[in-house]
Amino acid sequence: MACCMSCARGCPWRDMHERYGKWNSVYIRFRRWAEQGCLERSVANPCGSGTV
């Protein structure tokens, strides 16, 4: 996932590979997920057992 790669490597959003789309679109999506708590749920349940 592009968001995880950017956070894990500490690279600037603008340096993301083109295959992930426009860097600004990826950033906005990541920010919305963070605000909605999606990232916490995915970390708590990485295998997607359906309890989210």
Descriptive key words:
single chain; 0% strand; mainly alpha; 52 residues
Detailed description of the structure:
With 52 residues, this protein is mostly helical. Helix content is 56%, strand content 0%. The protein starts with a helix and ends in an 8-residue tail after the last helix. 2% of the residues are buried.
Structural class: mainly alpha
The major pleated sheet works out as: none
Counting DSSP H or I runs of 4 or more residues, the number of helices is: 3
* Beta strand count: 0
Average pLDDT over all residues:
76
State the domain count. 1
Strand fraction equals under 5%
The residue fraction in helices comes out at 55-70%
What is the alpha-carbon Rg in Å? 12 Å
Order of helices and strands: HHH
Shape: elongated
Can you tell me the residue ranges where pLDDT is under 50 for at least 5 consecutive residues? none
Q: How many angstroms separate the termini? A: 19 Å
